[in-house]
Amino acid sequence: MPDRGDKEVGVVRAGQPGIEDVDRVALEEPLQLVVNGHAVAVLMRTPGNDEELAVGFLWTEGIINKADQVLKVDLGAKENHALVFLEEGVEVDLNRLTRHLFSASSCGLCGKASIDAITSLHDSLPDGPGFPESSLLGAPAALRSAQATFEKTGGLHASGVFSREGRLLALREDVGRHNALDKLLGWALLDGRDLSESFVLMSGRLSFELMQKALAGRLPLVAGISAPSSLAVEFSRESNQTLVGFLRAPRYNVYAGADRVVFGG
Fold this sequence. Notes:
The protein has helices at 50-60, 99-102, 111-119, 133-145, 148-153, 177-190, 208-216, 230-239; strands spanning 6-12, 20-26, 29-35, 38-45, 70-74, 81-86, 131-132, 157-162, 168-174, 199-202, 221-224, 242-248, 251-256, 261-262. By secondary structure, the chain is α/β, with parallel strands linked by helices.
């Protein structure tokens, strides 16, 4: 499949009036997600890894909890459509879809109601494991060096999952922060990966929605290059997740779950 992460567009640059140059921008296109014939969501995403995105979205939204519940994901029937067919006997409760409630900071729900709604889908995490400080500090450079499409466009978010030793296991890019994480979690589910001893690093702001998706993936530590929101901090404390923000070596802040960070390690 050809690389569809970016495209060439015309641009006039400052200081060069009347001269059209070219630039590369990140692609953004809709993906209609259809489950057993029911349209459930339109995801504005960067094309690529669409099967992972569909499966990851359904996992983090509580529609499925195992890879073998998905019979097939058909991406070829219609452009920008993902037709998901679930195994017989898998009940689809469309009322459990939460994106329309939680995708915007102005969702209108109080923080406690939002947290209760999501923690009812996914249990909080057990204590442990520990993550060496050196693994966290080395992760931003590893993430940045692996962002191929960002290098060309400067316009994509990334999520990368790392081992406890700081080895980058997988990375996904997308115009949407939540899509990049859904793609990553879809990869893990389809590949049979256990993430309970891994951590995830995200390129942008850490929101409530990203924390709940990481909880669905059983990721004990979530780190971001940027800041967390207040509700993300509250949620991480309720769910027993470790939350690290402003991870820019040699500095970072731990907003919750500092016992998992092996300082000086």
